[in-house]
Every structure is written in structure tokens, then in C-alpha cells.
Amino acid sequence: MLNRYPLWKYLLVLLVLFVGLLYALPNLYPEDPAVQISSARGDLALDANQVNRLESALENAGIAVKASEQDGGTTLIRLRHADDQLPARELIAERVNDDYVVAINLAESTPDWLAGLGASPMTLGLDLRGGVHFLLEVDMNAALTQRLEVNASAMRELLRDERIRYRGTEIEGRTLTLAFIDEEDRDNARRLIARDFPDFDYQNLGEGRGAALAMTLSEQAVNEIQDYAINQNLTTLRNRVNELGVAEPMVQRQGPNRIVVELPGVQDTAAAKRVVGATANLEFRLEARPDTPDAETERFAFRNAPSRSADLMRDVIITGDSVSSANHSFDENGRPQVNINLDGTGGTLMNRATRTNIGRNMAVLFIEHKTRDRVVLENGEEVVVREPYTERGLISLATIQSALGNSFRITGLDSPTEAAELALLLRSGSLAAPIYFVQERTIGPSLGQDNIDRGVMSVMIGLLLVVLFMLVRYKVFGVIANLALAINLVLLVAAMSLLGATLTLPGIAGIVLTLGMAVDANVLIFERIREELRGGLSVQQAIHAGYERAFTSIVDANITTLLVAVILFSIGTGPVKGFAVTLSLGILTSLFTALMVTRAMVNLTHGGKPLKTLRI
């Protein structure tokens, strides 16, 4: 019989509608603005009396508290208004000591029974949820200096192996200079070094005891080092952002030496800057013997005890670049430590250095690049100048008991927080060159909410106009199309929530476009039915022919649009991807609702009935 579905098709449609409604429901529970209080040491937690006193202080200050909850060492105080987050954080920070870290956050409010089914609301992008925007600049001069230091260490080791005497090394700009005892040693060194280091232009300087070899990086080598520095920094920053657990972050290059980082939903700017901008790295060196020449040693103080210091060899065994994985834990005495695994090359170098130096001390040197602002006078005006500097300090100095391999641990850290951040930085990789914050912008939750309200209003206006048009134009069939349109919107929201897709303002534009395209499919079907009725077919035959003959046109039109959306997603970035995601999902839900849902409703209301006329 025409226009009748088998039972399983009706059940399939109902099942899809039920699942769609279930996974769209969490979006009715928006995130609560909140203040998070965490232990800086990992072993402290606020007690109930302290939390009650903080809530009372907030209420007395006119800040409405919705609820509070504790999870381990973290306390979360939910607020009723987003505008109260910053005042609440300042008030709480004044009432807790330095053992706690106070940050603003957004807390999910999805009911437990929905969360238990894996249902969660859509992830919102930076323009809707708020977050931070950083513009970073890569220090290209530091990248060259770091490469020259690595080359200098390799050259010194090569000369020692060949028993060629040298007096010291000096780095200035892109030039590395080696001083020698006499011209014969210099000439022998030049032949040896030039064979293994072809990226330099070589020049002999001085005579006799003033003989030296100046090695300047070629222009091609400089360009390669700078490209490597910014590409490596991009990779490292992406790894760090992924470690932060930020949904849909954006990390991309801007110009020759700048990087843009956007972190949606991150409200604690200080914590984000500390992790994203950290330029910390580690070096593992042997402690110098008493008879080691001064030119081959460097003195460093301990980070946690500046009055103590040690002389280390200039040559580096390995750096943090050789770390393949790292995690923090506690040793047998309850002190924080970082467990490290090295890659193959790093493990080989560590084993080679330690098996021949058992009983000797090995140091872990922590290196961090920072900047400070200095006010100078230029043409009678005060100008703020950014001055980069580097801090180096010893974390630990331990005796080598046996040959080390790919796995070992670092102790001597001040707190679990420091251990956790060091493990994160080592795990995500070190920066190939220091980076500095050029610009920092915070998009507050209130601005994001305003964007959401405007976006929802645009969807509602577009939906209302479409609904009115379909009712006037197609009457009863217009009602069916409008019901399918509402179902389409629910399914689209459910799909985005289930897949963890991020909704942005361009994504909302994609939803509005999807609603229009969903109506297009129904218009094609209904106009085809009208055409068949005018051609003399019966009502049932016209309905059947309308759906069957419009099918090819609908699928062809939507597949071509889907291909465009896939291309936009594959080559686009940021906002373009957000638009492509909603458009792609919208096309699939539109095909389902236009071809399955409306057909099911038409079959239920008109199928199998002896109709003489059709209100369409």
C-alpha cells in the first residue's frame, strides 16, 4: 500500500528522536560562574567552617552564592551572576593564605543522571564562552645563541677526543670564536671542525698565543634555525595547551616571528600565562673536578638555597629535549619528585656519561628565560623597554650510584605544584627559543553571554520567519515541515553535544543556514507533490511520486554542499572550521528529517486514506 511505513521504520525514527532529545537536554543547564579554591601544595583542603565563613563574607558583600562543593583538595563556590566572579575572587583571596590558589572558573550544572549517560552540553568557543587571547613573540636572537651553545659543546668534545688544545669559547651574535694556544692547533681544529660543521663561514684570527678561529653562521643556516625555532615552538605550545585540557584551542603562526594562542573558557589568566609562556628547560651536567680548568666550568647557585653553589662542567649530557614522558609523584619520604623517561638517544647519552663516572656528582640545572620592564629616557620621554634575562639554578646535585638508563627521577623540588608544572613542561616539550607576551586580552563571560543572546535571537528570528512562510504557503504540510524543522534543530544540537564539537558565532551562522536548507528540501518535495496533482495523479500517488522524484535532487544538492563544508574544515582555521562543523552536521540532520521524519508524519496523517483533495 502506498505511503505506509513498516513498523521498524517508525520505531527507528522514534529512537533517533528520543536519543536526540536526551543528548540535547544538557544544553538547558548552562554552566555556573564559580570561584575555585585549590591547594598550592596538594595536601590541604578547606574545612566546612572555613567554607561557611567564605560564603557569609560573600553574602555580606552582596554577592549571591548558589551552592558550594568540595572534591578532594578543591573547593568550588558557585555564584548566581557572572559579573560577581572577579569581586568574589578578590574577596576570597584576601581571606585565605598563600597555601591556596584562588581562580575563577565555569562549573557544569548538568544533572548527575544525564552526566551518567555521557550527556554534556555543547562546548562554546572563545567568542561565546569567554577566555584569553595571547600574542607571543619568539626571540630569534636567543634561538641562534642556543644553537651556537650546542655547537660549541659538540666542538669542545670533538677537540678533546682528538687531543687538540684550546683555551676557551666565546659567542657574540651569530659568531662563535674558539681561542687556541698557537696557530698549529687552530689550523688542525679548523680542518677537523669544518668537516663536521658545514653551516659556518670560517675565518682565522690573530697569531701565536692570540690565535683564534671565528665561525659565523651562514645566512641559509640562520633562516633554517629561525624557521625551526618557530615551528618547534608551535608544536610545543599545542602540546601544552592540550595538557591544559582546553577545548578547541587555537595556536597558529602570525608573521615571521609571532604566535597567536586563544584558550576558550580559561578564566585564570595568570595560570594560563604561567604554563603557556614558561620557557623552562633542564640540563643534566657533571660536577666539575677540582683540577678542571676554569674555562671548562661554570658556577651555579641552588634555586631553593642561593647561599649554596657548585661548579659544573660546561658540557651538557642531555637537555629536556630528550625527555619522552614525565609525571610527578612523591618519594619514600613524601617529598615531591618528577619521574622521567628518555628517548633512545637521550638514554644512550645518559648511560654513556654515567657508567664512566660512578661516584661523581651529577647536577640537574633548571633554566628559565624571563623578561623585565625597564624605564629609559629617549628624547626626553620615558619609554618602557623590555629586557630579556635568563635565570639558571640547581635543582639537585646527587651522586651517581650506578649507570643510568632511560628512566630515573628528579628530586629536590619545593612543592607538588612545582613538580606537576615541571612534569607538564617536560612532557609537552621545551621551547626551541624564548617567547615573550606582546599582547594579552581577556574576553569576559558577560561579553560571551551577550554574543550567545544575540546568536540565539538571530536563530529565533530566522526560525519564526521560516515557520510563518511554511504555514502560509503549505498549510497542513507546512505544519509538518515546521515540526520537522524543530526536530532538525534538536538533532543538530544533540549531535554537536555528543561529538564534542565547539559552537562559535560562525557556527551559529551555520545553524541558521542549516534551517534554511532544511526548508529547501521540504519545498522541493511539496512543490513536486503539487506538480503531480496538477498532472492528474491521485492524492496518494502524488505524495508517493513527490517524495520519490525529489529524492535525487535533494541528495545531489546536499552532497555538493557537504563536500564544500568538508573542504572548508580541512583547510580552514578557527571561525571557518566552526562554520564548517555546524554546516556538515546540519546537512546530515536535514537529510534525515526531510526524507524520513516528514515522510513518517505524512504517512501517519495521510497514508492509506481515500482522500479526494490535499491541502497543500
TrEMBL record:
The UniProt entry, under NCBIfam families, shows: 2A0604s01, secD
Where is this chain's protein located in or outside the cell?
Cell membrane
Name of encoding gene = secD
Domain (SecD export protein N-terminal TM) spans 2-104
Its main subcellular localisation, reduced to a broad class, is membrane
Cite the record's note on assembly: Forms a complex with SecF. Part of the essential Sec protein translocation apparatus which comprises SecA, SecYEG and auxiliary proteins SecDF-YajC and YidC.
Organism, by scientific name, is Bisbaumannia pacifica
Pinpoint the SecDF P1 head subdomain domain residues. 306-433
Name this polypeptide is given: Protein translocase subunit SecD
Return the similarity comment. Belongs to the SecD/SecF family. SecD subfamily.
Functionally, this protein is described as follows: Part of the Sec protein translocase complex. Interacts with the SecYEG preprotein conducting channel. SecDF uses the proton motive force (PMF) to complete protein translocation after the ATP-dependent function of SecA.
